[in-house]
Write a structure and sequence with these properties.
CATH superfamily of the largest domain: Glycosidases
Number of helices: 9
Structural class: alpha/beta
Helix content: 25-40%
Largest sheet: 9 strands, mixed
Order of helices and strands: HEEEHEHHEHEEEHEHEEEEHEEEHE
Oligomer: single chain
Radius of gyration: 21 Å
Distance between the termini: 17 Å
Number of strands: 17
Bound molecules: 2-acetamido-2-deoxy-beta-D-glucopyranose
CATH topology of the largest domain: TIM Barrel
Shape: globular
Strand content: 15-25%
Length: 388
Amino acid sequence: MAAQNLIRFVVIIILRVFVKSSESISSDNLSPASPRRFPPYQGVRGAYWPSFTDFPAASIDTKYFTHIYYAFLLPDPQSYKINITELDQTKIPEFINGLRYKYPPVKTLFSIGGGGYDPNVFAAMAKTRRTRKVFISSTIQVARHYGFDGIDLDWEFPANKKDMANLALLYGEWYEALVLDAKIHRKPRLLLTSAVYYASLMVRLGDEPRLYPGEAIRKYLDWVSPMCYDYHGSSWENFTGANAALYDPNSNISTHYGIGSWIKSGVPPEKLVMGLPLYGRTWQLKDPNVHGIGAPAVGIGPGDDGTMDYNRIMEFNKKNDATILYDAVSVSYYSYAGDSWISYDDVGSIKKKLQFASSLALRGYFFWALGQDEDWTISRQGLKYFHK
Ligand SMILES: *[C@@H]1O[C@H](CO)[C@@H](O)[C@H](O)[C@H]1NC(C)=O
Ligand SMILES: *[C@@H]1O[C@H](CO)[C@@H](O)[C@H](O)[C@H]1NC(C)=O
Ligand SMILES: *[C@@H]1O[C@H](CO)[C@@H](O)[C@H](O)[C@H]1NC(C)=O
């Protein structure tokens, strides 16, 4: 044990020296917690596992992660109880059994909702104490039945102030139910986390500006996971842009702004787990000779509905002999070949984002999604910034 601690200590020193000697980026008006790099609590290195793709859970290399989320389970729109579909009946056991005996061990959570799920169901469920209770009980029952370590809510998105107020009630009642459940079963409390908009104030995708309930998040959640991507896309804009800009001098649509707004809203850095995309977004250029960020576009580019996974982008770039550029302003990469244009993250930009997260002493980061990396190239970058 003593020897183990000594080794850990030496490793931390080595990592500290390494991190210090590497380039650090300015997080200007946010309050950085440097030079402390490693927080005293466990860092989170999370990743979502989409049950609807064919990447086997058993092939997840757990040395790169601490928490893996099953994505997604859905509530029934009438009863608000979690509906275990036929797919889930085979995929949940695959997930749990595939990860159960892995070394190093990881914690498992299931995520409820996702970008494709009807936000009105969550809004209706969150409206009354009775329906919240039905939903909460059902989530705990599912977690205990299958042996998950935690529950994640991915409601995209609360549409107005009323939804946000109900979300605060939901978080509070959920937390209380989890504490009670832990007491009754004499087991560790289930984790409670939530994927949220990249910024604490939502000004798009709904009726009115509305602020997430920072106070309830601070009190009741283990952490929230701002989704720091999907900033620009060919499905809704006719000019190219960075999928996940760290900085944008011309707008508030950036991770720097978003994470800063979360901290200002009263959610402490140790309750923030920053989202990183393992995919890019693609455009069809209007003119192949006009190919910078902000270039006119006429539609979606190659891939899947204007998105492309990191491993497919590497393949595309090679096959098409694409021109690859790093944009230091947004801290992101883009490539183009003919009239195809792709915005994405690669090792260089991911490192800078991890340095940013680490300099603010955030709890950690997560990836959307497993199965999209190329031989763990991107996934392994976080090891030196957030320890287990
Ligand atoms: C619930 O799951 C069952 C079993 O797979 C499925 O047939 C049904 O359509 C689901 N209901 C909803 C509302 O998703
Ligand atoms: C882009 O869309 C806007 C409004 O949706 C339109 O006014 C503009 O002409 C479009 N630009 C191009 C280059 O298609
Ligand atoms: C950016 O956010 C700040 C405050 O957070 C606000 O005052 C400003 O108007 C926003 N700018 C834009 C372009 O939305």
